[in-house]
Structure to design on (432 residues):
DNA sequence: CGCGAACCGTACCGTACGGTACGTATATGG
DNA sequence: CCATATACGTACCGTACGGTACGGTTCGCG
């Protein structure tokens, strides 16, 4: 189980403000622009404070990831009675949110940063990003999928596998393409709709399939 | 003197050997290890030659991508009469090959490199990687999908969309996870099989569906 | 043989980064 | 009013990188 779960105000307000400036700097200029001097200048703090608070540069990067993850909160919609139509809508909303998160400036910048550091020996940034950043959205999706199954609308043996399929259908290679800097990938709405249709065709029970168009 | 489109023996054998050493260096130590001095030392050449051949560091990186792409050759299997079983097998082989390529040391290292440089202004590396590295595998997949349609085994309106779906089903988030350095993602065979089953369930005609197990 | 081109090895330069040290200012508490 | 802690700004240090210059060596060719 996760030992690192305690995340109530991991940093002081002042430190959060500094991390915010650091993120802004990273988004604007990439990793090359994220120098300790630059962060100190942008945040009006001293380098000495940076090293006192975060240890070293890697500590600063980890803190940035933790801080950004702490800002993301996904609200669980519970207790609602699911129908075929509402399940479809909820999954579409999830798909759109997922693509929107992945396409966000800060998300892309942090993923690029972690990927760039990932062949460095034991950088832990990638692990941190996956654990902190993905946990929320994974939980939300799994809850939705489980609810669909309990409502007799979805049918699968392995929920993880079903979620993996949904993720692949929704994201495909869009994430990597965005990470590589390919422009003009903002038509996410249609992509999400198509993906959800395919997902429901694969995992929906007759109750769901009956309400879907016969052919794509 | 060649503009960057003509790719018959883009570099001399000596230059190819240097690029090979540079790739090895990148795979072993990441971008940080890929210094001009390091490449010169590993390849037993002079820095002056590096700058004469490739212009500057970015030119060297671009040349590495072009060189690696020139090594990948996908042989097209043509003229074969497709059946439901052989289509399934061919798609499975494609899926496995795709995952194997994406999981390759050099592929991961180059993708990490290009992604790390992609928020730098106009780095072109990402574009280059997508155009050079993906074109071959895209063509192979599209040919296979088209052949399946012509044989009355697949049914779709938009071949690009069908391919995108296949790609997403096969790769899901595996590529990004590998790029982030997550270990133990080598169980590609089962993943490929499941993905192809889902793909054929979505796009297969009755001829194909008749030969598939009733439920997953 | 002689000549020029290509190339290797090394030394060199300017710059910029990560990290440390120091002097000063502000605030809090007795 | 003083003492202590915290933090700001700046200056500083060692290192390492990208890029250039130069002398020596090999190789192809007339």
């Amino acid at each position: 189980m996760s030992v690192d779960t305690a995340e109530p105000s991991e940093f002081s307000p002042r430190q959060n403000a500094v991390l915010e400036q650091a993120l802004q700097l990273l988004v604007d200029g990439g990793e090359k622009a994220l120098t300790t001097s630059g962060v100190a200048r942008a945040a009006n703090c001293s380098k000495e404070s940076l090293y006192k608070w975060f240890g070293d540069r890697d500590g600063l990067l980890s803190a940035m990831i933790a801080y950004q993850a702490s800002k993301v909160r996904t609200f669980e919609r519970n207790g609602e009675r699911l129908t075929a139509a509402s399940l479809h809508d909820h999954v579409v909303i999830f798909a759109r949110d997922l693509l929107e998160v992945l396409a966000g400036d800060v998300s892309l910048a942090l993923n690029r940063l972690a990927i760039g550091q990932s062949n460095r020996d034991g950088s832990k940034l990638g692990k941190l990003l996956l654990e902190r950043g993905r946990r929320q959205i994974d939980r939300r999706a799994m809850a939705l999928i489980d609810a669909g199954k309990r409502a007799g609308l979805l049918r699968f043996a392995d929920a993880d596998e079903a979620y993996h399929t949904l993720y692949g259908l929704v994201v495909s290679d869009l994430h990597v393409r965005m990470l590589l800097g390919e422009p003009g990938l903002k038509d996410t709405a249609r992509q999400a709709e198509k993906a959800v249709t395919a997902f429901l065709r694969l995992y929906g029970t007759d109750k769901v399939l009956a309400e879907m168009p016969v052919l794509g």
Notes: Chain B touches chain A through 46 residues (CB under 8 Å).
